[in-house]
Amino acid sequence: MSDSIRFACTGCGKCCTGHHVPLTLAEAHQWAISGGQVVVLIEGFLADGPGMPADQREHVLRRSHPVPCGDAQLQVSVTFAAFNPGRCRNLDDNDLCGIYESRPLVCRIYPAEINPHLPLRPENKDCPPEAWTQGPELIHGNLPVDEALRALIEASRQADRDDIAAKVAICQALGMTTSALKGNGFTAWLPDMAAFASVLEQAPQAVDGPWVVHVQDETLAADLQGHRLQVTGVAPVYYAFIGF
Predict the structure, then answer these.
(1) Mind listing the pLDDT tens digit for each residue in 128-138?
(2) Count of domains in the chain?
(3) Cα separation of 14 and 63, whole Å?
(4) Which residues of the chain fall short of a pLDDT of 50?
(5) Which domain does 94 fall in, by range?
């Protein structure tokens, strides 16, 4: 892969179709009260055990929050995302964004990556080939060229860190306390939006309610139990397990 990537949006609308867009806490609240559905994705790991990607230790720890799980402590990462199984609700008939001036941070940053450990790979994006052969230089040496883009990426990363404790408290208040193991999958929840927005407005404080890790592999379950985590393999009713 070249260390220099050019990009110019072609307006095809593919990045706005079939993608769940990560939202900050404030963006999730706005999405909910404007009639959108938020999906909650949860993954967890042990700070010095299963699920911890050693090469990303600082990054994942900074965007996670400790919760009690069995007789151990699980680090939980929570993503609130705009639920877009099809076309984004704000995409008009001409494939233009209806909230362009107030669109979420992640939309403003696209196609650059938020995770500092993930390089931008055009082949992993939905944009047509011509998008990568025109426009200004976007990435050089895996770093964004534009200062404004760099600032947006850092703002998104900082929001992940600043929002995580509140996200965990909101999950606990709504009974969403089953996580997947990082690297093995996510638990995905579709909360009632009226209840979700109400809890966000109340700004709940985290409590020491017990968490559970959903795993389907018996060997992995035994390993986690050996680390004193509470696990379940029962078919979910209120959430979906998205395995890798």
Answers:
(1) 999 999 999 99
(2) 1
(3) 28
(4) 1-2
(5) 4-243
